[in-house]
Amino acid sequence: MTTAPSPHAKPGLDTGADARAPRYAGLLIALHWLIAFGIIGLLAVGLYMVGLPKGLPVKAALINVHKSLGLTVFLLVLLRIVARAVLHRPPLPPMRPWQRAAARTTQGFLYVCMVVMPLAGYLGSSFNRYGIRFWGIPLPRWGWDDAHLRELFYGVHQAVGYLLIALIVLHVAGALKHQWLDRDNLLARMLP
After folding, report:
1. Which UniProt keywords apply (predicted)?
2. Separation of alpha carbons 9 and 11, rounded Å
């Protein structure tokens, strides 16, 4: 069965769905914002703490909070991936096919980064003598004290962090474009 295009659709646009599509499920909305604020906090703390000199007690404390919060957000990301597979997601609003592809590609890369970044950080921490404590609970180390492997994984962690910043800027810019220029009320579907 085919549906007629929306009377408000612009010529040449892939209408896909009406702009008044239903909202995301409450769990997906809550996870989106918890993860978003967690990642922004992690990026801010991460960028700040790497500039601190070694040996400062505050740096060690920030590193431990960063690791614990990073693992917490990682668990929320895994929960979101499962919830996203199970729960209804509203279709994208009408947009050009290239915009639809750009939105899906950006989201895909965001998910890849949200999985790779904490894994690289965890593995980097596994190759040092300190290991990882998850809110005070020691976690297993998957390696030994190896400066080369530690720096390799921390390098991946850092590179993915910068890529994640760029993707977040792109994601927010796209959402604001839809809200303010296209006026398709895209943000309302993800607001609490």
Report:
1. Cell membrane, Electron transport, Heme, Iron, Membrane, Metal-binding, Transmembrane, Transmembrane helix, Transport
2. 6
Residue 2 has pLDDT above 70, yes or no: no
Cβ contacts of 179-184, under 8 Å, gap ≥ 24: 182/93, 182/95, 184/19, 184/93, 184/94
Q: Which domains does the chain show, CATH number per domain?
A: 26-189 (1.20.950)
* 3-state SS assignment for residue 90: coil
d(CA 66, CA 52): 14
pLDDT, tens only, 111-123: 999 999 999 999 9
- List, in sequence order, every beta strand (DSSP E) within 83-169: 132-134, 137-139
121 phi-psi bin (left φ>0, alpha ψ -120 to 50, beta other): alpha
Three-state DSSP class for 14?
strand
